[in-house]
Structure formats: C-alpha cells, structure tokens
Automatic annotation (TrEMBL):
Function: Catalyzes the formation of L-homocysteine from O-succinyl-L-homoserine (OSHS) and hydrogen sulfide.
GO cellular component terms listed in the entry, alphabetical order: cytoplasm
InterPro entries linked: Cys/Met-Metab_PyrdxlP-dep_enz (IPR000277), O-succ-hSer_sulfhydrylase (IPR006234), PyrdxlP-dep_Trfase (IPR015424), PyrdxlP-dep_Trfase_major (IPR015421), PyrdxlP-dep_Trfase_small (IPR015422)
CDD domains in alphabetical order: CGS_like
Pathway terms, separated by semicolons: Amino-acid biosynthesis; L-methionine biosynthesis via de novo pathway; L-homocysteine from O-succinyl-L-homoserine: step 1/1
NCBIfam families, sorted: O_suc_HS_sulf (TIGR01325)
Residue numbers of N6-(pyridoxal phosphate)lysine PTMs: K207
Required co-factors: pyridoxal 5'-phosphate
Subunit composition and interactions: Homotetramer.
Any Pfam family hit: Cys_Met_Meta_PP
Keywords annotated in UniProt: Amino-acid biosynthesis, Methionine biosynthesis, Pyridoxal phosphate, Transferase
Name of the protein this chain belongs to: O-succinylhomoserine sulfhydrylase
Organism of provenance: Actibacterium atlanticum
Family of this protein: Belongs to the trans-sulfuration enzymes family. MetZ subfamily.
Amino acid sequence: MAKWGKRTAQVHGGTRRSQYGEVAEAMFLTQGFVYETAEAAEARFVELGEDEFIYARYGNPTTRMFEERIAMIEGAEDAFATASGMAAVNGALMSAVSAGDHVVAARALFGSCLYILEDILVRFGVELTLVDGLDKDAWAKAIRPDTKVVFFESVSNPTLEVIDLPYVAGLAHAVGAIVVVDNVFATPIFSNALELGADVVVYSTTKHVDGQGRCLGGVVLGTKDFIRGTLEPYLKHTGGAMSPFNAWVMLKGLETLDLRVNAQAESALKLAQALQGTKGLSRVIYPGLADHAQHDLAMQQMSGAGGTVVAFELEGGQGAAFKMLNALEIIIISNNLGDAKSIITHPATTTHQRLPQEQKDTLGITDGLVRLSIGLEDTDDLINDVKQALSAAL
Ligand SMILES: *Cc1c(COP(=O)(O)O)cnc(C)c1O
C-alpha cells in the first residue's frame, strides 16, 4: 500500500481494534495483563512479541496506538510515549550519554531542558558546551571528535529563532554524534526534522498534540534501534511512561492536529502582519514574516509555515506589557502554548523569570517582550483584542 499522508495517519495510524470492533479507540486503563498459563507468562518475559504487553510502565495497547500514530505522522520508525515533555527530553538525553561524553547544545532552551543539561548531566560527569544556536562558527568550533549528542530547539522559545538543522546535523554526523531536536514549535505537522538530519525528535505533547489544555505528555521519535535499543530500557525502568488515559486523549488530539495547527498558523501570520508597524511596538517576531532573520530557513524547515506562536515587544517595557495583558478580553494569560484558546505570556516575569539578567539580555528576553500562542478563535477577534489592549496600554 502507498505511504499514508499525515491526515490519513492522524485518523487511522496505529489503530488496534478489540473483539468488539469499536470505532473510537479503546482506552485500555490497565496496569497489567493476564496470562493463560504460567508457561505463557514465562514465554512473554523471555521475549515480547508484537502486540504483547506485560506491564503499563513498559507499554500498553492504548499508548502503543498513540506511539504508532505519531510515528507515522512524523515519518519515524518508532516512538516511545512519556509522562511529559520533560520525561521525553530527559529520557532521550540520559539514555544516550555516559560520564565523560561531550554534549553540545544551543543556549536558547526551555528552562527545564537547561536544568537537565547544566545540572543533571554535568553532575554525572558529562561535559557540556552551550552555544548561540544562530552562530554557525560557534557550532563548528564546539562540536569535536568526542561529541556524543547535539541538542537544540528547532525554533526557540520565546524569541522564535530558527536553527539551521541540516547545517548542525552535518557537523554532528561528521563526528558520529547524534542530533536530538526538541521540536515543539515546529509541531509534527510542519516538521520534517528527521528528513533534514535529526536522529531523534522530541515533543511535549502537552502542547499542540493535546491542544485543548487537558493532559501532560511527551514523545521521543527515532529509529527502531534508538527507541527500542537505547531509550526504552532507560524509560521502562525509570518510570517515565505515559498513562493510558493521557495516551487516549493524545490519540484523539492527533486526529485534528493538522486542521488545528494550520488554522492557528494562518491566524498567526495574519495577526503578525496586522501588528507590524503598530504604534508602541518595537518588534514583531514571527518566522512567517519576510523580515524575520531566518525566514527562508523557517519556510524550508517547517513546510512553508511560520508556526502558531507570535512574539512582540512593547516599547513601554514591563509596565506597558502588564497593562496590555490585563486589558485583553479574549486572550487569556497563562503559560501553555499550542492550545485552542489563545494564550499570552510575559516570559521575563514568568517562564524565564529565574534566568539572570545577563542571560535574558543574551536571549533577547526583554521586559517588553510578550509571547502569544494563537488559538482557534476568529482571527479578526484576536487582532481586535490585541489592538484594543495595545491602545489601552499606551
Ligand atoms: C513545554 C515544553 C517542554 C516541556 O514539556 P512538558 O510537557 O511541560 O514537560 C519542553 N520543551 C519545549 C520547547 C516546550 O515548549
């Protein structure tokens, strides 16, 4: 059969039907599995066959449906679902390195990812080099023959810098390092990270995959060899598995993922365009805008889409930003993203509060910067809401 497109995979990928022939995926809310005989139990512990399970920390039919579905969408050989995005990042990194290994990562990272690298890995004897992800020479200098893993967010949070994946992957592969990409902002729909050179792709499915603010989840995607050989032993013994209930929610989220993120990205572009040149704004950052510093790269790496998040900077700093947030009538103040509801965040005082000022300056996280995750509301209502809140803040 021909390879399925992403929309077909979203709806049918990985489906397992029970003897009842249900239409919606069954939720197997079970920790364990019954064996007909003691011999059958023994055999299953010796070797796990296709569609055989022994314990939900190792795998579960609902979770397996989710893993196969998202692997099919991403074009990956296999996937392992995790309790959260951070369990996925931790699993991908910890399972791949040992004391004495060298890791290179882009500095502009989600705070908890930075904690895993700078605090946990370093504490266990991994050597870490952090680079400015946009600086090609810095990557070339940092990656050396003993580099084991290269890690970065394909699009950084909250300033939406786009890292040149094929370039960094080329350097990494030349020394035999594996490339792990935290791909949240690209989503499994816009992403072609594996094709562009990533070896391992990680998502927080808490974001667009759920997309309706309900469950935490994460997933690691890669070759069968990496997922089952390297990652699974680590995760199944350390307890990072996704709950079957959350896997069911994520499965249903996947069915509408393409429709949602495309609608969100379309609105995001219109909103970014409408905000350009607005009085009181010093910057509008959106990879889909032609004036974005990595616009061409973003278009190549994200199937022509700019993503679902827009950032902008108010000239009036924190005072103006807070006034604007408080004046919004539709857009809610929260720190998630990828949701059906539009969500605004002031990174300097929330998600990135703990960074030292100097680090905030390096990353461009100014007092006037806000991050807006575009939801599924009417685009014009969102534009009007931002505009009325901006005039209230001036
Ligand atoms: C949210 C997020 C994470 C962490 O995911 P959780 O599901 O909250 O654990 C990691 N990386 C990026 C880029 C994120 O946006």
